[in-house]
């Protein structure tokens, strides 16, 4: 009696092919999840850096203004002018608060700039404070 072979060694079985496909799909899923995560982190970093650039531009503009030019009455005009000059989209909210310092007899103002924006359903904010000092001219001889 001849030895009967139950399995041929010439090709893959359906079971071998199914296992190979499952392994390939697992690796593809892991790799695609990694790429999506990397994309989200890069996009978040990019929008954070753009927002920081806007805040720095706003602060530089405020630093160039004189002490008397920085007041509550002109904030809305200042914000709309900066939106135009720096091409800040309306999706970024800008809030500027000016707080006079009672201790220094109104020689110093605290300027607080907040920039808010939304990323991936998450509200993010950047907040910076600076001092605006009134120029003091000593007694002339």
How would you portray this structure in words?
The chain is an alpha+beta fold and 141 residues long. The protein has one domain (14-133). The chain is built from 2 helices and 3 strands, in the order ααβββ. It has helices at 14-64, 75-86, and strands at residues 93-100, 108-119, 122-133. The chain has a 3-stranded antiparallel beta sheet with strand order 1-2-3, covered by helices on one side. Strand 2 and strand 3 form a beta hairpin. The longest helix is centred in the N-terminal third of the chain and has 51 residues, at 14-64. The chain is rod-shaped and about 115 Å long. The model has no long low-confidence stretch (mean pLDDT 87).
Number of strands: 3
Describe the global form. rod-shaped
Query: Uncertain runs with pLDDT below 50, 5 residues or more?
Result: none
In order across it, which strands form the biggest sheet?
1-2-3
State the separation between the terminal residues, measured CA to CA.
129 Å
Mean pLDDT: 87
Structural Rg: 31 Å
Structural class: alpha+beta
Give the proportion of residues in helices: 40-55%
Order of helices and strands: HHEEE
Tell me about the biggest sheet?
A: 3 strands, antiparallel
Number of helices: 2
Strand content: 15-25%
Question: How many discrete structural domains?
Answer: 1
Summarize this structure briefly.
This protein has 141 residues and is an alpha+beta fold. It has two helices and three strands, in the order ααβββ. The chain has one domain.
Write the layout of secondary structure elements.
Layout lengths: L13 H51 L10 H12 L6 E8 L7 E12 L2 E12 L8
Antiparallel strand pairs: 1-2, 2-3
